[in-house]
Design a protein that fits this description.
The chain is α/β, with parallel strands linked by helices and about 300 residues long. It contains 10 helices and 11 strands. A 6-stranded parallel β-sheet has the order 1-11-8-7-5-6. A 3-stranded parallel β-sheet has the order 3-2-4, with helices on both faces. Helix 1 packs parallel to helix 10. The model has no long low-confidence stretch (mean pLDDT about 95). It binds NADP nicotinamide-adenine-dinucleotide phosphate.
Length: about 300
């Protein structure tokens, strides 16, 4: 039987409705308006689209939104000075510096300069460390979105064999940490694969839940998974463009073939993608509540 399609579009919509209500409630009861600032350096077209989407979603949910577009030749000193100012601004609860930054700027230094309490991306070492020891304030957005997709689709994570393909700091490692936590919605047995893993199929075939974040189009084929697996495809690969100039995207999983064996699977697009911005909004609300002593 073909797999159930886990729709990130639908689940993200559901979470955004919940957030909208929560935001209206904190505003009414506590006069608190969560505030998110995005900082964009340079004119990278993809980054401009992402920042625009974040701004639009903030407005739609009732989050106060500020945007700083800086020229590509902005110095590191000036960028750090802006972050320092935003760290001290009480209207702002979340700071997001859009990556990648121009080459002359040290990305690590900039991310480390963000106050961990306003680090709604969850990339600051303080927040990475807190997640590692099981006491997170913020979960990084894409991995948190993956966990929510599983929970809200009724997938049993506790005790499941979870295999993750990819070990990046933004997806592979944090989702491994999240699903390994000793708490509800986690408690999985986790294996992480990468380019040096021997016999990948051995691992992927054991998976009850397979999470793929490799950035390799259709790398996971039907012969690499077992019947009844739940597949979360994080990959976004551009195969080309339609004559109308629309991007043709595919994931890291051979969707058409794998869906015939899987119990459930996320599509690309419409799977993990819509969840990432939604979880950013959730973190901003949490940051505002933490700052106000409400959480
Ligand atoms: P990344 O930093 O390039 O990391 C890719 C990881 O996959 C690396 O750990 C690499 O192993 C591993 N890998 C690559 N090819 C492999 C193979 N053939 N077998 C086993 N492991 C392999 O990528 P990322 O930032 O994590 O992103 C991964 C994908 O997810 C990309 O397509 C990206 O666009 C997408 N993504 C989507 C969202 C979203 O919101 N939808 C968010 C983030 C990322 P090594 O460490 O050994 O090199």
């Amino acid at each position: 039987m073909p797999a159930e399609i886990i729709s990130g579009t639908e689940i993200a919509k559901e979470i955004r409705e919940e957030l909208k209500q929560e935001i209206a409630e904190v505003k009414e009861k506590h006069n608190l308006v969560p505030g998110l600032v995005t900082v964009l350096v340079g004119e990278d077209p993809a980054s401009q689209v992402y920042v625009g989407q974040k701004e639009k979603t903030s407005h739609a949910l009732g989050i106060y939104s500020e945007r700083h577009d800086l020229p590509a030749d902005t110095t590191q000193e000036d960028l750090l000075a802006l972050i320092d100012k935003l760290n001290k601004d009480p209207k702002i609860h979340g700071i997001l510096v859009q990556l990648p930054l121009p080459k002359h700027i040290n990305e690590t230094e900039v991310l480390y300069a963000i106050d961990p309490k306003k680090d709604v991306d969850g990339f600051h070492p303080v927040n990475v460390g807190k997640l590692m020891i099981g006491e997170p304030d913020y979960l990084p957005c894409t991995p948190h979105g993956i966990q929510q997709l599983l929970i809200r689709s009724g997938v049993k994570i506790e005790g499941a064999e979870v295999v993750i393909v990819g070990r990046s700091n933004i997806v592979g490692k944090p989702i491994a940490n999240i699903l390994l936590q000793k708490r509800e919605g986690a408690n999985a047995t986790v294996t992480v694969c990468h380019t040096r893993s021997k016999d990948m199929s051995f691992h992927t075939k054991r998976a009850d839940i397979l999470i793929v974040a490799a950035g390799r189009p259709k790398a996971i084929t039907a012969d690499m998974v077992k019947d009844g697996v739940v597949v979360i495809d994080v990959g976004v690969n551009q195969l080309g463009e339609t004559p109308e100039g629309k991007r043709i995207l595919c994931g890291d999983v051979d969707f058409d073939a794998v869906k015939e064996k899987a119990k459930a699977i996320t599509p690309v697009p419409g799977g993990v993608g819509p969840m990432t911005i939604t979880m950013l909004m959730m973190n901003t609300v949490r940051a505002a509540k933490l700052a106000a002593g409400l959480d």
